[in-house]
Write a structure and sequence with these properties.
By secondary structure, this protein is of the alpha/beta class. It is built from twelve helices and eleven strands. The strands form three sheets. It has a seven-stranded parallel β-sheet, with helices on both faces. β2, α2 and β3 form a beta-alpha-beta unit.
């Protein structure tokens, strides 16, 4: 298959492209900085310049068998001001709407769209087990995810099979949340976040990439998928597992009040609890390489 990507140069996009290329597929990436993208993705990925306009995207989509949409500004790192909320909305909902319109204009059209979302769709749910059939939350992040998913599923009206990845914390050696956690933990300065009782859904990056690859080629994949590992843990449990993997203490907690003072409402990304289960992946027979946290962390630390 030939796959068109948005968000190709991000942590998840790079991992998905690498997996698809190993499987014999080819890729094209919609990019804002061709030089940076070429350095990150290599010479074998076709680049579609963002400044080429909608016609360039439609032309690229007309050559694609499938689409992977992973675009989105980082959720954490700064306060959610009005301007930041608009940026988060545009980079997810706006980009997805434009992409779906371009898919509708393509001839022939891609057969499948795999689009990003997040477990934030469920809101802060404590210890309630959450499957793809659970009801949505109603905070800013949950509403954003709902609009994001709605924008993607609109492609179904053009006969496109749509898969939505409700992504958790993806663990890998080359980026994502773990890359930010490792330096303080290596120096023995890590610790739980807030109370540590909030559930911390996670998935190894290799399993995430394998899920994307399967969703593209297997027609049974459709609708929302919780991109989470089978083993559930809390933030406190994750902290202990990472400390074990590094053989370091983890006794420096990050107080909830400090996070709320620093990030405001954006702190919900770190403090909310989603006890998400991979129910749909289990029903599809998806085989996790890293279903257990200790083994997942050990493989990453070894790298």
């Amino acid at each position: 298959m030939h796959i068109f990507f948005t968000g190709a140069t991000g942590f998840l996009g790079r991992a998905a492209i690498a997996r698809l290329r190993r499987d014999g597929h080819t890729a094209a990436a919609w990019v804002r900085s061709p030089d940076r993208a070429r350095a990150l993705l290599g010479a074998d990925v076709d680049l579609v310049r963002a400044d080429g306009g909608p016609s360039a995207v439609v032309a690229a989509l007309s050559r694609a068998d499938g689409v992977v949409n992973l675009a989105g500004e980082p959720l954490i790192g700064r306060r959610w001001t009005d301007a930041r909320r608009r940026a988060l909305e545009q980079s997810r909902v706006g980009v997805t709407r434009d992409l779906v319109r371009a898919i509708g204009a393509a001839s022939p059209r891609p057969r499948v769209l795999v689009s990003g979302s997040a477990v934030g769709w469920y809101g802060d749910r404590g210890d309630e087990p959450l499957t793809e059939a659970s009801t949505p939350g109603d905070d800013f992040l949950a509403r954003l995810c709902r609009r994001w998913e709605d924008a993607a599923t609109a492609a179904e009206s053009d006969g496109v099979r749509v898969v939505v990845s409700r992504t958790s914390v993806i663990l890998g050696p080359d980026g994502g949340a773990l890359a930010q956690m490792l330096p303080p933990f290596r120096f023995g300065l890590g610790g739980r976040i807030g109370s540590g009782r909030q559930y911390f859904p996670w998935m190894h990056v290799d399993d995430f990439a394998a899920m994307i690859a399967a969703a593209l080629v297997d027609d049974r994949y459709r609708g929302p998928l919780n991109a989470v590992a089978p083993e559930q843990t809390t933030n406190r449990g994750f902290t202990a597992a990472l400390a074990r993997a590094l053989r370091r203490p983890a006794v420096v907690p990050v107080p909830e009040l400090a996070l709320r003072a620093l990030f405001g409402e954006a702190s919900v990304v770190l403090l909310a609890s989603q006890r998400a289960e991979p129910r749909a992946l289990g029903a599809l027979g998806f085989s996790f390489v890293f279903p257990r946290l200790d083994a997942a962390l050990a493989s990453i630390i070894r790298r």
